[in-house]
């Protein structure tokens, strides 16, 4: 899928495929340096993190395993409430493992802060977070995000794993959705 397939639905491209890939290469280098001599358990948060997970993991030289979790925030509307339900739990025991959570975007940070404390209680040797995108709100919550790709404005973005009503995930770039798409 590329820009032609969604013509008119996007206001503009915020991050190109090249920008994303270049930044992921830098993040992978930082992660490799920090985890030298160790093994990482990457935990992807479904479904938004699939693209970041696929590309970031392939840029790493450090040996890693992958596992996945699916969560849903209770609460009405589009804002997450911070009360989280596990839809799919991990298959891996975290005891003694170096765990790195891989996320697409941190908005309010509520989901991630719940997830971090849930996983912390399972006894990992270490727990860190890597997120491709971060919105301004996220800085208000205490989430230990060690690796951030880009700080972006407080606007709704799609592409590269991120959806609006389950669409646009397969775009290779991140774009701003045009207001007419969500009924403005
Ligand atoms: P929060 O940090 O708990 O507010 O929730 C973050 C989750 O909301 C992310 O993992 C995304 O699934 C979703 N989300 C937040 N902002 C956006 C956006 O701009 N586009 C698409 N999904 C988003
Ligand atoms: Mg997500």
For this entry, give a set of tags.
binds inosinic acid; about 180 residues; 9 strands; binds magnesium ion; three-stranded antiparallel sheet; alpha/beta; globular
Write the layout of secondary structure elements.
Layout: E1 10-15, H1 17-34, E2 40-46, H2 50-59, E3 64-73, E4 84-88, E5 98-106, H3 110-120, E6 126-134, E7 145-151, E8 157-158, E9 174-177
Parallel strand pairs: 2-3, 2-5, 5-6, 6-7
Antiparallel strand pairs: 1-9, 3-4, 8-9
Q: TL;DR of this structure?
A:
By secondary structure, the chain is of the alpha/beta class. The chain has helices spanning 17-34, 50-59, 110-120; strands at 10-15, 40-46, 64-73, 84-88, 98-106, 126-134, 145-151, 157-158, 174-177.
Can you walk through the features of this model?
- The chain has 184 residues and is an alpha/beta fold.
- 21% of the residues lie in helices and 32% in strands.
- The protein has three helices and nine strands, in the order E-H-E-H-E-E-E-H-E-E-E-E.
- The protein has helices at residues 17-34, 50-59, 110-120; strands spanning 10-15, 40-46, 64-73, 84-88, 98-106, 126-134, 145-151, 157-158, 174-177.
- The chain has a six-stranded mixed β-sheet. A three-stranded antiparallel β-sheet has the order 1-9-8.
- Helix 1 packs across helix 2 (50-59).
- The model has no long low-confidence stretch (mean pLDDT 92).
- The site of inosinic acid has 15 residues, from strand 5, helix 3 and strand 8.
